[in-house]
Amino acid sequence: MAKTAAALHILVKHKELAEDIIKQLNKGVKFDVLAKKHSSCPSGKKGGSLGEFKRGQMVPQFDKVCFSGELITPHLVKTKFGWHVIKVLYRT
């Protein structure tokens, strides 16, 4: 079972925008470009990079995707902070 994960994310207020971001990613738009343009999280300035973090450090819905979701595929997750587009890079 993985103990750490690394992910990129984009945080927005509206589901429609998050879904549009996923469509753009699927068309080949770079994650970091969209993060810098749309993310309300401070990590947006770093292309959405959250670096490496431990299981349990993020809110439960976010944590679940990071430790059980498919790698590299964009995931849409709702938390108390808003809508996240999450791209899990790796787990260790």
Explained architecture:
The radius of gyration is 12 Å and the shape is globular. It contains three helices and four strands, in the order E-H-H-E-H-E-E. The protein has 92 residues and is α+β, with helices and mostly antiparallel strands. The chain starts with a strand and ends with a strand. The protein has a four-stranded antiparallel sheet with strand order 2-1-4-3, with helices on both faces. A hairpin with a 2-residue loop joins strand 3 (75-79) and strand 4 (82-91).
User: H/E element string?
Assistant: EHHEHEE
- Mass-distribution shape: globular
Mean pLDDT: 97
Strand content range: 25-35%
Taking the alpha carbons of the first and last residues, their distance comes to 8 Å
Structural class of the secondary elements?
Answer: alpha+beta
Helix segment count? 3
Q: Tally the beta strands.
A: 4
**What's the story with the biggest beta sheet?**
4 strands, antiparallel
Strand order of the largest sheet: 2-1-4-3
Radius of gyration: 12 Å
Low-confidence spans: none
Helix fraction? 25-40%
What order do the helices and strands come in, and which of them pair?
Elements: E1 4-12, H1 15-26, H2 31-38, E2 49-54, H3 60-68, E3 75-79, E4 82-91
Antiparallel strand pairs: 1-2, 1-4, 3-4
